[in-house]
């Protein structure tokens, strides 16, 4: 058999992930990627950001949540570089998923204001889907719980399509370009690891006067439904982006 006759080896798709906290990872989304044969390149921003080429050439980029805000660049200088990576990805029309802080960075990169919301929204709850949201992969989350964990919010960027809201946060999800989705909530959260969230955000929870035991119990009661719906959503979204 000559080299030309040898079966070709398909290069697996690569997902580049920007992570800000050890426990705020891809959660229940990771198995979906791995089962589909993807490789996952997780970059904790404390250890450095990926270079521009790695970021540009990734099939999918995901920016996860974190406790800092988009305006905290003086304290966390990596945010300005992270914003540039997000802006470049959006401008090139490449697939991008932003979650929580990632969604806020997407909104900022698209020219929308990001600011403190009218109240912290922390705990397990549902979403109100718009007509466009109900016609999107987010339909998998209709009637299902997701984890909300944020104090900031954003205006809807120009030309973006609103997909979901809650009473506290009118802009919970938006579609920017093809394959570019921003989620303020955590559809990826793994309720089995809820204790990591509760411990890691202990100061925030105490300052907000929230009932830690209630959040823990909701994770036990609602976690399996949340995981199934979240994975269904992500599988639908991933398939739609990469088979369209």
Question: What is the element layout, followed by pairings?
Answer:
Blueprint: E1 14-19, H1 30-35, E2 39-44, H2 52-57, E3 60-63, H3 78-91, E4 96-99, H4 101-109, E5 114-125, E6 128-129, H5 131-134, E7 146-154, E8 161-165, E9 173-175, E10 180-183, H6 194-200, H7 202-208, H8 212-243
Parallel strand pairs: 1-2, 1-3, 3-4, 4-10
Antiparallel strand pairs: 5-7, 6-8, 8-9, 9-10
Structure overview:
The structure is a single chain. The radius of gyration is 18 Å and the shape is globular. It has helices at 30-35, 52-57, 78-91, 101-109, 131-134, 194-200, 202-208, 212-243; strands at residues 14-19, 39-44, 60-63, 96-99, 114-125, 128-129, 146-154, 161-165, 173-175, 180-183. Helix content is 35%, strand content 23%. It has 8 helices and 10 strands. An 8-stranded mixed sheet has the order 2-1-3-4-10-9-8-6. It has a two-stranded antiparallel sheet with strand order 5-7. Helix 3 packs across helix 4 (101-109). The mean pLDDT is 95.
Short descriptors:
244 residues, alpha/beta, two-stranded antiparallel sheet, 23% strand, globular
Task: State the gist of this model.
The protein is α/β, with parallel strands linked by helices and about 240 residues long. Helices cover about 35% and strands about 25% of the residues.
